């Protein structure tokens, strides 16, 4: 009787852990990417690219990660004026630049 209880308990734990793992998704998307954020200005000539991660169910805050030309990733505070300006310029630039499909369809 005692061994049946242990087997049932272990089976329940295994099922619960499996169900939890399936509902969480991939471990890289299950938490915020930025632990520390920087406010100091970074000149755009050092940027390789910028990633913007909107708030969602896994991280409750907007995250902006700048990858520098030296490969280093820097999280910046999205509320700082210079970061807002850079994002605004990028958004403006992407709206003005036609996509490849639009350019080829007009020719």
UniProtKB/TrEMBL annotation:
Broad class of the protein's primary localization: secreted
GO molecular function term, any single one: chemokine activity
Gene Ontology terms: cellular component: extracellular space
GO BP term, pick one: defense response
UniProt keywords, alphabetically: Cytokine, Secreted, Signal
Gene3D superfamilies the record matches: 2.40.50.40
Subcellular location as annotated: Secreted
Keyword Nucleotide-binding: no
Protein family (similarity comment): Belongs to the intercrine alpha (chemokine CxC) family.
Protein name: Chemokine interleukin-8-like domain-containing protein
């Amino acid at each position: 009787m005692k061994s049946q209880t242990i087997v049932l308990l272990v089976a329940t734990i295994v099922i619960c852990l499996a169900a939890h793992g399936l509902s969480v998704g991939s471990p890289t998307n299950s938490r915020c990417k930025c632990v520390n954020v920087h406010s100091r200005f970074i000149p755009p000539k050092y940027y390789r690219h910028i990633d913007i991660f909107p708030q969602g169910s896994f991280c409750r805050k907007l995250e902006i990660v700048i990858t520098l030309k030296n490969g280093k990733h820097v999280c910046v505070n999205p509320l700082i004026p210079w970061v807002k300006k850079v994002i605004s310029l990028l958004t403006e630039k992407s709206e003005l630049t036609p996509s490849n499909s639009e350019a080829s369809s007009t020719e």
